[in-house]
Write a structure and sequence with these properties.
heterodimer, A: 256 residues, alpha+beta, four-stranded antiparallel sheet, B: 385 residues, eight-stranded parallel sheet, three-stranded antiparallel sheet, 9 helices
Chain lengths: 256, 385
């Protein structure tokens, strides 16, 4: 004789089974999580063991936050204990300009890609000729690129400036100035090729003795210096900046 | 038949509950790993940012300073910057700007200096005057716009919890020679303990000037260096940092490169005597408190991936991931020299931020390593290249 289950009993058994399963799955998932995190912890402790000092992320972060806070507390403590002197309203101190010394010098202009420069006076103007290469190419000696000269001319009154850039037609690599004779510079490329540059006429010439008839450097007119103009950022083609971010605000309205 | 139905129902419930628990597990992971209002799902390959709308960061200008040009005018530059940064200051943001000089040098037997991106070694005492003039111009302009309170001479204080304007005063670690490639013992090297002391003394002295004149609530000066591994050894660079540390307790920013492999490669060779450990040390660890201000120049994102590799090295060696507060680009300098586009180093600030965020978030161990309101600054030649 077949025993008939009541519908209530069936629903109860389903609910009980459902709860039992959920409990089982929760237990399994917690056990799984524990095992995984233990193995991650082991991996981290293995990595830490090779560290030069005994630190943990927690202790390092704690040390760093403490040190950062100490710096700022010291800063504010100094402010609190200092009697402020109102700043002068006029005439900030000025520096004496360094003298303009002529000759060939190491450039010291990194990150600009220049090896050295020649400095001289032409028609009362300060002329600097920088020799080097294209940016980022010095170490790529197997794949030489063009050499570069950049000529800077500053007016006698030191308030006007002009810059002209020249590239070699051949792949000489970086250029270096090794000598100057009557305003003709002798240059050597990374490929050991020798080139000559006439400063007076601002052009490459064939040799030290070549006579050229091109116009010479003419004096620059004096101009009034201006503050650095904020220029727009050079976005790549097709790139649209978010509205309102660039360029930075140029003017502002005084607050009430 | 009834039993079969029950079995089918039980199996259905079992799999449904599995799916539900899996979903809950992922959601709870997101909640657990949330920090700084940002959450990230480990290994899931997707991101959930809270709040979902992240404000664009403000970008300041940083400068390669060239005093030898006739129109070099630090007070005027400071005034211009004060107007440009006013919006950020009013918003309570923190901003950073770097005033950068070039290779350290010895001006005379008794005085150190730095090249000013020409052939001229410029003495530290004159550099200090230029910096103070910049700060005084900056503060005078802010004070004109809206005066500060009693004893405050650098404009109104919109943020009383922190100092909003960080000015990093830097040199680079170039050893000299063509492309800074001279050998370690080169006599041209001035990246020394003594130079670090001189620079640290200058930074301390400028800080005294700032505080004595009532600018300290608005201006925080810090030391800085453009540290690039091919340009000098770790040994020389560390000696300079020790000199700085022994004379100055103020923070230090490394606004240089991470000359590391593309992505994390623990056994890859490094330039000179550098390693992950040593680049991490000069950017993140020990005293003075150090912050990386990473150069993110290349448009292909390699710089971002290199810094991510360094952050991962830190994580794997017990120092935790790096949390980058700010980053550096050079798009304005590129527009001045018209040369960077040849080598794809003209990232704009927003591109750099996207690249660094993507690189860091590609690995859960370095994810969320760029703070949501990260600061950004862009190099400019001042007055010109």
């Amino acid at each position: 004789m077949r025993h008939q289950k009541s519908p209530t009993l069936s629903i109860l058994s389903i609910i009980t089974g459902f709860l039992a399963l959920i409990a089982l799955v929760i237990i399994v998932s917690f056990a799984f999580k524990f095992l995984v995190s233990s193995s991650i912890g082991m991996a981290l402790s293995t990595a830490t063991a090779s560290s030069p000092t005994e630190v943990t992320p927690t202790s390092f972060q704690h040390w760093r936050e403490t040190a950062e806070a100490a710096v700022m507390e010291t800063h504010f403590a100094l402010i609190a204990m200092t009697t402020v002197t109102p700043p002068p309203t006029c005439c900030p101190p000025t520096n004496t300009p360094e003298p303009f010394v002529t000759g060939i010098f190491e450039a010291h202009v990194a990150p600009r890609p220049f090896a050295n420069l020649w400095k001289g006076m032409v028609n009362g103007q300060q002329v600097r000729v920088y020799a080097g290469g294209l940016e980022g190419t010095y170490t790529d000696t197997p794949n030489l690129t063009k050499g570069v000269l950049e000529v800077h001319v500053t007016s006698p009154s030191l308030d006007n400036f002009e810059s002209v850039r020249y590239e070699t037609s051949e792949l000489t690599g970086w250029l270096e100035i090794i000598a100057e004779d009557h305003y003709v510079l002798t240059l050597v490329g990374q490929n050991d090729q020798t080139l000559y540059f006439d400063v007076l006429t601002m052009q490459f010439v064939d040799s030290l003795t070549t006579t050229v008839t091109a116009p010479t450097i003419t004096p620059l007119p004096p101009i009034t210096s201006t503050a650095i103009p904020p220029t727009p950022y050079p976005f790549p083609e097709g790139y649209t900046p978010p509205p309102g971010q660039y360029p930075p605000p140029l003017t502002s309205t005084p607050l009430p | 038949m009834g039993q079969r139905k029950q079995i089918v129902i039980l199996v259905f419930i079992f799999f449904t509950s599995l799916v539900l628990i899996t979903r809950i597990s992922k959601d709870s992971q997101i909640a657990e790993n949330g920090e700084n209002n940002t959450a990230h799902a480990h290994g899931g390959g997707y991101h959930l940012y809270l709040p979902l709308i992240i404000r664009s960061p403000f970008t300041t200008s940083s400068y390669y300073m060239n005093h030898s040009e006739a129109d070099f005018n630090p007070p005027e530059l400071g005034q211009t910057d004060a107007v440009n940064y006013l919006q950020a200051i009013q918003s309570g943001d923190r901003i950073i700007t770097i005033l950068a000089w070039g290779q350290p040098c010895k001006y005379s037997d008794t005085e150190w200096g730095a090249y000013e991106y020409t052939d001229t070694c410029y003495r530290v005492s004159n550099i200090q005057i230029d910096i103070q003039n910049y700060i005084s111009g900056f503060c005078a302009q802010l004070q004109n716009i809206r005066p500060g309170g009693s004893g405050q001479y650098c404009g109104y204080s919109y943020n009383t919890q922190q100092v909003p304007v960080i000015i990093g005063l830097g040199v680079d670690n170039c050893i000299g020679g063509l492309n800074c490639a001279n050998p370690p013992g080169s006599p041209t090297n001035a990246v020394t303990y003594e130079h670090g002391q001189a620079w640290g003394t200058m930074v301390q002295s400028i800080n005294s000037y700032v505080i004595n004149h009532g600018y300290g609530y608005q201006i925080f000066v810090a030391g800085a260096m453009d540290i690039e591994a091919p340009w000098n050894t770790y040994t020389n660079t560390k000696a300079w940092l020790d000199g700085y540390k022994d004379t100055c307790w103020r923070n230090f920013y490394n606004y240089g490169t991470c000359d590391c492999p593309d992505g994390y490669q623990p056994y890859a060779p490094f330039a000179r005597d550098w390693s992950y450990d040593r680049i991490h040390e000069v950017s993140q660890r020990g005293l003075p408190v150090k912050y990386p201000l990473p150069e993110i120049y290349h448009t292909d994102g390699i710089d971002a991936r290199r810094w991510q590799g360094l952050s991962l090295w830190g994580y794997l060696n017990g120092y935790s991931k790096i949390t980058f507060q700010e980053l550096l680009t050079q798009s304005r300098a590129c527009s001045q020299t018209q040369n960077c586009d040849l080598y794809n180093t003209l990232n704009t600030p927003i591109m750099a931020i996207q690249q660094l965020r993507e690189a860091l978030d590609a690995d859960w161990r370095t994810a969320d390593g760029l703070v949501p309101y990260s600061r950004s600054t862009d190099m400019t030649w001042y007055p010109r290249p």
